[in-house]
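Troubleshooting entry. The earlier prediction with zinc ion gave an output that would not parse, so I re-checked the input for stray whitespace and re-submitted. Clean input:
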Amino acid sequence: MTTPPVCDYEGSDYQTSFWEKGGREYEDRTEAIALKRLLPTSGRLLLELGAGAGRNTPRYLGFDRIVLLDYSRTQLEQAQERLGKSDKYIYVAADVYRLPFVDGLFDAATMIRVLHHMADAPKALAQIKDVLGSGGVFVLEFANKLNLKAIFRYLLGRQKWSPFTPEPVEFAKLNFDFHPMAVRNWLKELGFKIEKTLTLSHFRVGILKRIVPTGILVFLDSISQWTGNFWQLSPSVFMKAKVVGRNAIPPREQDTILSYFKCPACGHSPLVEKENSLECSNCKKKWGVKDGIYDFREPVK
Ligand SMILES: [Zn+2]
């Protein structure tokens, strides 16, 4: 099966170099505020897509269980070190274009700073829609091509691509910025209703971050976030979308972790638990389970 190329953070020190030593406290705190405004405070099961090293996971603690999904196993190992092994966290290495979950499983999903790396965003969004139940909430962050800096650069002739056109721009390999209108249209076509839009990082300007105390910038950004319901000109946009018009899925008889999964190759469920793997009785592929991480990227031999 061919799927679009994946941006792989395997072996990356992204968590340390970008978040902990990269002067990103302002961005991190404004994201915490946006998540609080958009996510339900409690729920049964949440899917965190592109969880990385689990930076945002402690913000979802109102949920009974959280599935941390990432393409990179080493990122998940870092998350495991941070959050520990318990039944509350389920660690899954998988490709977002081939999600290994049964339909309608989750009551919420988040995808923060991940669409940014999607060569085929609508395909990924369709997968997410499938695994959300009726009324399921999806909080999506994306990088906005229609931001003030890009608009000025374009008008001054210092940037070739137009921020005004709907197609994504790949400004570096597997790094995309999106037009808010395009994202809205994809979500609507899939049957999502967009309930709220917040704009973030209005003050992501090097000189401001150096001279203005972070707390003040965070406060100003938290007020400015609400303007996102009217216009979106900041580099980062959060949307809260709800699944509408989907048939309610009957409650499942058992809420075991095994019952969550389907075979990402053929779609069959349930899988059969074997020693160190989950096996598909339909296509016979085996998916590895090692040190508390379910691995659905490639079948094991
Ligand atoms: Zn299968």
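This one parsed fine. The pocket of zinc ion is lined by residues 263, 265-266, 268, 280, 282-283, 285 (CB under 6 Å).
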